[in-house]
Each structure stands twice: as structure tokens, then as C-alpha cells.
Amino acid sequence: MSVSAQGEELAQTVTGNPSDPEQTFNQINRARWKQVMFDSGDTDWQQHWLVDGLVGTVENTPQGMHVEAGPEAQNHAHHLVVWTKQVFEGDIKIDYEYTRTDETTRYVTILYVLASGEGTPGFEKDIMAWADYRKEPFMRHYFDNMDALHISYAAYPMVNLDEQNDYIRARRYLPLANKGLAGTDLKGDNFNTGFFRPNVPHQITVIKKGQSLWMKVSNKEQSQVYHWSLNEHPDLTEGRIGLRHMFTRSALYRNFSVSTLMQ
Fold this sequence. Notes:
It holds the Pfam family DUF1961. The protein has 263 residues and is mostly beta strands.
């Protein structure tokens, strides 16, 4: 297929086919992506990442980069966020292997996609310009002051004992609306997914293409594609990628790859 023909096909499928989201995802995933960042996870993490938070740890292991938040629940200083040093532009694809290493049935891990500051004084577009403000990574410092997409996964309610009561949820932060998380939910919450049991490797692919956000999760037993429309929100075209662990949460990240769509 020629590049122009491939582009036309991609344009036709980017909004998603509600009757067959996996087919649409596969077409987008096969497009001309160019890898612009790769971290195996077993070498010096500081080559690619920066950290918000003073309590948790980031360590390289033969199994990947281990990110562990602080142990004290309900203490916002014990959250941990790891950010790419690189800033990415345009359509983006993120691939990595994720393995939970905690056994809690509460709180969440979050993937931030194309995160930048709201652009007001003190909250510049480059979020590293106000990193000191996030030494205590209170979640409100993020959704109140960042333009970003957010996917919660391996996520549980704040009060919960049921290990099967997990969810996957996407948000588009709207900091200038000054309403906190109100109105940020993207339609398409998913509950009781069956994924993300402790010590089980999962392959994750997230694609932001135009006004669509895609996520594919798979392990040896199951695979599922999730889709969220961004049509009701302003577009995001530039920012960093972040990995948030709420207090007590931890995981391994292996073969973390970021690609952008070739023109």
C-alpha cells in the first residue's frame, strides 16, 4: 500500500468503528510509526526519566524499571510520579510491559499522555519549570494545573477489599475550567476487567491519534481493546508521558517505547 493510500485508510478509521474497535485499533497500530524513545528498564533509568516525589523509589532490575510509591496510605507525600525527559508532539503510540508488584486492593496507577502546564503564571507549559511545586505529588496539583490525558488502570476504589473490583477509566484534564475533575471523564469506563493480577506481565499499547484514544491490554489469558472519543474536548498535541503510583502502589516497567506517526 502506498503512503498516501495508507494515510487515507487511517483517516477513515481513526474515529473508530463501534462495532469492531479491535479491527480499527489494529489498522492504526499498523500505520507508519517511528520509535523516538526506548527504555529496556534494566539500565540507568535517569537517562530517560525525571521524578516528582521524595518518598518512593525507582530502581533498575533485570526484570525492568521498578517504580514504588511510599508505603503510607492517605499521605499525599507518598505518591510518586515518573516523567519522560522527552517532550513529544503529534499523534503518539506508547508500548510497554507492565507487571504489578503490589497486592493492595485500593488506589490507582495512572498513565499521563501528552501532559503540559495550563500556561498561566507559575504553571508554564513546560511542567518541569514548576517541578518544585510537585515535590509532594498531591493529585490535585496535576488535574488542577495540567493539560493532559489520564488513564487509570490496575485501579481500585479508595475503600475496597475485592481484588476483582478493578476499573480502567480515562480523563481529559480541563485546568482552565477551575472545576477539578468535574467534566473530565471520557465516556467508556470499564469495570471488573480480569486484568492486572499481581506478578502477571501485561503488554500495554496506548495510541492517541487525532480525537481518539486507544488502549490495548493483553496477557497470556486474555486481550481487550478500549476506546475513548476526545471529540468533546480541546485537542492535545504536545507534552510528556508520566507514570503515577498512588501511595502503596508499585510495578515493573519493561521495554518502554514511544513512537510518533510519520507523515
